[in-house]
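About this split. The held-out portion is used to measure sequence recovery: a designer receives only the structure tokens and must propose an amino acid at every position. Recovery is the fraction of positions where the proposal matches the reference. Here is one held-out target exactly as it appears in the evaluation file.
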């Protein structure tokens, strides 16, 4: 668990998921990935969209519209209307000029203006968002223009000025002087850059950029110093392979006959299957892994497509007979290796990426059982039980009284329920009670609990007090016969690699043994270990709980900060939030118990809320954990009655 730093940047998972869903919907690309980056752009080869962190320090209103404008530009504009072959030509042109950065950023500026106009025409509702974007960028570029003029950075100052002239609505826009040569060229540059609004394609933008840069090559000695907009170099990315496939290149011999089958009814709909049925024939010239394969030499032509099929007939059965003998070989038997490889690959993948989250595609679970209980554990657990006994007894008495009250409650003469046959009170009483309830209520608590304990290294100073809270839950739930489990989770940092990340789940109390009188000392086997991958662990617990038959299902996560694991720090908060939302959609109530050793600052609260929403219990002093958990457990159990 990486501790939460006071001034650390936090990802608003709600906003991030909103932007991701918006980008996917507008681009109509199901597998589109969205990430934050220094500047905004779309990578068609990786199918990734990047939202600029330029908006991160803006007020909430401007930040929201600014990030949405990035999404609109990329998903409605760049994905559909940008020609990336032209961008490769741009990078080839940049190699021939000393103003390569200016060429790149000028191209992005003009292309974004063209795409912005397209977006506003296709989706008029985006106009307000782009207006906010333009106002904020104009403020930024105006301040940058002043700074660059003072520092005599002429190329950057010219770029800032061109942006202001391109986006102004005022025909009398104030134009500061840069130098004599640039001032003379400015009317031409202004007319040329204004063609962004008239450009129809990316090729038109490229022509304008080359024209402007060729003029400025004689006027500017230095390239741009700062990066205002960014576009990666796609020139080394290979184009999609358009060569024919092996099936398309295979020789197709002409048939001996040349007749054509006539269709009986042109309106008949045919059942077309896309599955291939390769066959084997001894006349085939090539040996491959297919079992069934033959070359068609004679038949009747039809108007079906190349992969089409015809309706089967009785005589279409393919049979083969093999006669021979076999004997033991002295060679090694490799028949089981392929199946073993598949099994190992499945384990290393940790399940399908969709099931456990795309951030966890290389994570796989390792399930551990509790070790043998030592005398030291028994003695230590007696102390834990003694400490929580007062809470446990009060809770047990409260639940028993509530159950008894429900058991002896009157079942007739009620103000609501089933209508009784005794309707006389309707005529004789001012407030008649003519209803009844048919069945007695259940006197059992129909609930199940799963306690997921963060066993990361940062829990070293909180684990002992956490065990007191876990013991309280265990003893209280055991006394009222509610099944539950206690699972510690962590990721092994030493064994984790880019493609293999073992995640350990140590179930010290399982559902089957949770109600045994002797169960409990196993809790003391939970110890701080290494990293934690919260979203992955929550999904595994969700998978267990959804198969339970109880009506109320609770998942409590004990943690002390945000997730931290191999390749998980960047999107760990978002992945955990997605796992929590998936669990709640499956009917689970997910509650976080945040453990701290001191005052909880606003940044920590925001991080926990980004992951778990409002369903979090904040414990600023770990010593007070039992006092905090008692009312929580009381509320959850009463809710289950």
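Reference sequence for scoring:
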């Amino acid at each position: 668990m990486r501790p939460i730093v006071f001034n650390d940047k936090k990802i608003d998972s709600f906003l991030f998921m909103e932007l991701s869903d918006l980008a996917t919907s507008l681009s109509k690309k199901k597998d589109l990935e969205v990430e934050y980056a220094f500047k905004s752009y779309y990578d068609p080869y990786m199918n990734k969209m990047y939202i600029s962190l330029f908006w991160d320090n803006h007020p909430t209103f401007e930040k929201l519209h600014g990030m949405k404008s990035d999404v609109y530009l990329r998903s409605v504009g760049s994905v559909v209307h940008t020609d990336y072959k032209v961008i490769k030509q741009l990078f080839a042109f940049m190699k021939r000029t000393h103003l390569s950065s200016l060429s790149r950023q000028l191209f992005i500026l003009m292309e974004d203006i063209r795409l912005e106009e397209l977006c506003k025409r296709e989706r008029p509702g985006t106009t307000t968002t782009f207006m906010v974007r333009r106002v904020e960028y104009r403020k930024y570029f105006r301040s940058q223009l002043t700074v660059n003029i003072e520092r005599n950075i002429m190329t950057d100052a010219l770029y800032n000025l061109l942006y202001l002239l391109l986006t102004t609505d005022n025909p009398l826009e104030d134009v500061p002087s840069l130098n004599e040569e640039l001032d003379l060229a400015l009317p031409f540059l202004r007319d040329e850059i204004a063609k962004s609004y008239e450009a129809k394609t990316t090729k038109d933008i490229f022509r304008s950029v080359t024209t402007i840069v060729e003029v400025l090559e004689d006027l500017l000695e230095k390239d741009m110093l700062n990066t205002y907009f960014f576009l990666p170099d796609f020139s080394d990315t290979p184009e999609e392979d358009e060569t024919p496939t092996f099936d398309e290149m295979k020789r197709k011999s002409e048939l001996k006959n040349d007749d054509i089958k006539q269709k009986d009814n042109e309106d008949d709909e045919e059942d077309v299957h896309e599955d291939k049925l390769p066959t084997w024939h001894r006349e085939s010239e090539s040996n491959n892994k297919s079992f069934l394969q033959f070359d068609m030499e004679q038949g009747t032509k039809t108007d079906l497509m190349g992969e089409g099929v015809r309706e089967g007939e009785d005589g279409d059965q393919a049979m083969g007979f093999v006669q021979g003998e076999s004997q033991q070989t002295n060679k090694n038997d490799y028949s089981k290796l392929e199946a073993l490889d598949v099994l190992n690959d499945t384990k290393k993948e940790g399940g399908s990426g969709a099931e456990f989250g795309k951030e966890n595609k290389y994570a796989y679970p390792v399930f551990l059982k509790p070790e043998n209980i030592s005398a030291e554990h028994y003695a230590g657990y007696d102390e834990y039980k003694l400490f929580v006994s007062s809470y446990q007894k009060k809770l047990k008495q409260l639940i028993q009284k509530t159950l008894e009250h429900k058991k002896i409650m009157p079942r007739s003469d009620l103000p609501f329920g089933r209508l009784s046959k005794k309707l006389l009170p309707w005529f004789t009483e001012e407030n008649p009670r003519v209803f009844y309830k048919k069945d007695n209520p259940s006197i059992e608590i129909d609930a199940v609990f799963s306690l997921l304990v963060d066993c990361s290294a940062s829990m070293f100073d909180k684990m002992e007090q956490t065990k007191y809270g876990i013991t309280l839950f265990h003893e209280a739930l055991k006394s009222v016969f509610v099944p539950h489990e206690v699972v510690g989770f962590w990721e092994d940092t030493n064994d984790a690699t880019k493609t293999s990340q073992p995640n350990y789940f140590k179930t010290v109390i399982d559902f089957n043994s949770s109600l045994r009188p002797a169960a409990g000392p196993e809790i003391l086997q939970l110890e701080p270990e290494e990293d934690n991958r919260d979203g992955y662990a929550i999904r595994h617990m969700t998978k267990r709980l959804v198969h339970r038959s109880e009506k109320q299902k609770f998942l409590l996560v004990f943690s002390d900060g945000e997730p931290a694991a191999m390749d998980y720090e960047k999107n760990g908060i978002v992945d955990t939030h997605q796992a929590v939302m998936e669990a709640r959609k499956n009917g689970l109530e997910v509650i976080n118990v945040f453990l701290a050793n001191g005052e909880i600052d606003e940044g920590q609260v925001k991080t926990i809320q980004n992951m778990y929403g409002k369903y979090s219990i904040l414990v600023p002093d770990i010593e007070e954990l039992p006092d905090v958990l008692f009312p929580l457990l009381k509320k959850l159990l009463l809710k289950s009655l």
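Annotator remark: Residues 279 and 343 are 28 Å apart (CA to CA).
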